[in-house]
């Protein structure tokens, strides 16, 4: 295991470091060994949306996904922080409708689409965004599926004590081999509970998910991991959307690497063929720093071929442009310029 | 002089530190002594828009402000990072028109208004934002005034070598007693040049500006500092806008403290009665951290009375709310919870 300082990401302007970020990261294998450590591997971190692929496991494991005929696109939506593009919203609404619910059943609050053009369309149509527009609406629809399938009252499904959330916490706890009894639990942007774990535990959990070994996880969980990873690969546009880093990354790596961003500067990466998982956290929560750090980690892992670099450069090593379109700076890793 | 670690600002969720920021800050007097240091006082920092009150000095000193009959509101606009509300834009356009120019003369690029409602109004009217919408349009109009007044070709007025910028750099260099010959110079978001100086130099410059002593600065510069500070107090809505921290701070302190934010987590504060200046920089560039730090500094200076706390709490010690309006966290200084 190589142990290093945090990854330092800098914003350069006029050739001078204007601002800098520290990113903590762990690369781990499924047996629990960290292969690479940057900064503090025990930093107790809210994974936020980076946890979604694990939060979606009960949807498949309980049989709810089969019961309701969930497509790969819907399974991907369950793992997504979507941008609120039209196909995301109509996808969520159609799924809710098929299970006999409307967006009124969602606990996640209304959210404007990320892309200005999509927001402008709503304004011109004099529409307000609804709960289905929330970037987590797929995750929440998946959770409602599990409640309905098991005959549970979906009301209050975002409470920590609701069976829906108990199943999610069990999946995370088991994959990470980390007791969540005393873990900090925050309320996420979408109102679902989010547990905080050490980065090392998150990385190991991601490695076990990526490995999807029935001997380690049991056949049901292993099969669920496989199915969800395949869904993300089949419908990457659901995971983020147009010009979003996770969507572009999943497309570029064609199964070699899957990624999921989380708010406050978090990423989790899955490398199925290499049986590795990665968890990283920008100390200050900046997404420009966490996105830059995934390039840094993947580069050290030897994963950045030409196609990957071309796909990720604008997300992970972007130029900084001003209001008149002039290039005024650059995001990079310290010491790399 | 008290010397400390950087101010640590934290984002709390579920009672746990989710993210953290380091803010470097210097409080100084006009003779060059730092009274308070947090972190690295020599950190070479782009002040960005925090420099605007100094960048506006030539507008007054050259006589251009009198030549063109500039109102206090226009002088305030010259010191502003305005939000692109209707009165900001019409104010800039009327000023440009009066000096015989249109927004085509501005080098700063088009920028959407900050507030969603103002942006929505543009969309519904099928209008695109113009150069006058740029938050720096007042600063740029002021610069054009100086060129016209002195018979200089305004073309290329944002070039470092243009007389307009030479006068700005001279004012900053003299106030700070800091040679800018070899200073890093970046291109700002508005396309104007922005020099980087040590935080200590910026703080001392702010102290001298705030003191506005004709014996130290000469009568012309001292009078210009006074006039611009009075303009900011007379028209604080110009400096930022509705529900913006600088506007609310200037109103709350009624002349005791003036503030100006800069991109990438910068603030400069002016305390005229106490002859103090403050310069601070969030290491990672986060505005939530720099805003929180001005509370921390003003608190240590004993400036936060009840009225100030009430006015600044939502900017500097805000609750974090999610998409459904639930309180999920808090911004605070580490060790204060």
Produce a short descriptive summary.
Chain A is α+β, with helices and mostly antiparallel strands. Chain A contains 15 helices and 13 strands. Helix content of chain A is 42%, strand content 20%.
Protein model, in words:
The structure is a homodimer of 337-residue chains. With 337 residues, chain A is an alpha+beta fold. Chain A is 42% helix and 20% strand. Chain A has 15 helices and 13 strands. The first copy, chain A, has helices at 52-55, 57-61, 64-67, 72-78, 86-98, 116-124, 137-149, 163-176, 199-211, 214-217, 219-234, 236-239, 245-253, 287-300, 306-316, and strands spanning 2-4, 7-13, 16-28, 34-38, 44-45, 185-187, 193-195, 197-198, 258-262, 266-271, 276-282, 319-321, 327-333. In chain A, strands 1, 2, 3, 4, 9, 10, 11, 12 and 13 form a nine-stranded mixed β-sheet that branches. In chain A, strands 5-8 form a two-stranded antiparallel ribbon. In chain A, β3 and β4 form a beta hairpin. In chain A, α4 (72-78) packs across α11 and α14 (287-300) packs antiparallel against α15. In chain A, 58% of the residues are buried. The model of chain A has no long low-confidence stretch (mean pLDDT 97). Chains A and B meet through β3, α6 and β6 of A and β3, α6 and β6 of B.
């Amino acid at each position: 295991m190589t142990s290093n300082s945090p990854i330092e990401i800098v914003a350069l302007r006029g050739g001078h470091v204007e601002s800098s970020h520290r990113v903590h990261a762990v690369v781990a294998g499924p047996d629990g060994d960290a292969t690479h450590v940057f900064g503090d591997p025990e930093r107790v971190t809210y994974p936020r949306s980076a946890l979604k692929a694990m939060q979606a496991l009960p949807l498949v494991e309980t049989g709810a996904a089969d019961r309701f005929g969930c497509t790969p696109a819907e399974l991907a939506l369950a793992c997504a922080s979507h941008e609120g593009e039209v196909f995301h919203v109509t996808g969520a609404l159609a799924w809710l409708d098929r299970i006999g619910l409307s967006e009124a059943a969602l606990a996640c609050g209304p959210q404007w689409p990320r892309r200005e053009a999509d927001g402008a369309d709503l304004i011109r149509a004099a529409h307000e965004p609804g709960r289905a527009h929330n970037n987590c609406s797929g995750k929440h629809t998946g959770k409602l599926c599990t409640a309905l399938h098991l005959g549970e009252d979906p009301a209050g499904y975002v409470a920590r004590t609701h069976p829906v959330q108990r199943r999610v916490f069990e999946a995370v706890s088991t994959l990470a081999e980390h007791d969540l009894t005393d873990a900090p639990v925050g309320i996420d942007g979408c109102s679902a509970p989010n547990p905080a774990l050490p980065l090392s535990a998150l990385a190991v959990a991601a490695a076990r998910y990526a490995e999807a070994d029935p001997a380690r996880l049991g056949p049901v969980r292993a099969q669920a991991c496989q199915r969800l990873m395949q869904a993300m690969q089949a419908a990457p546009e659901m995971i983020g959307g147009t010009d979003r880093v996770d969507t572009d990354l999943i497309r570029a790596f064609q199964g070699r690497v899957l990624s999921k961003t989380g708010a406050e500067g978090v990423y989790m990466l899955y490398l199925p063929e290499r049986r590795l998982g990665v968890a990283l956290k920008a100390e200050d929560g900046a997404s420009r720093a966490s996105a830059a750090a995934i390039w840094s980690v993947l580069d050290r892992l030897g994963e950045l071929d030409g196609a990957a670099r071309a796909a990720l450069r604008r997300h992970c090593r972007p130029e900084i442009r001003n209001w008149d379109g002039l290039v005024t700076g650059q995001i990079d890793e310290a010491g790399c310029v």
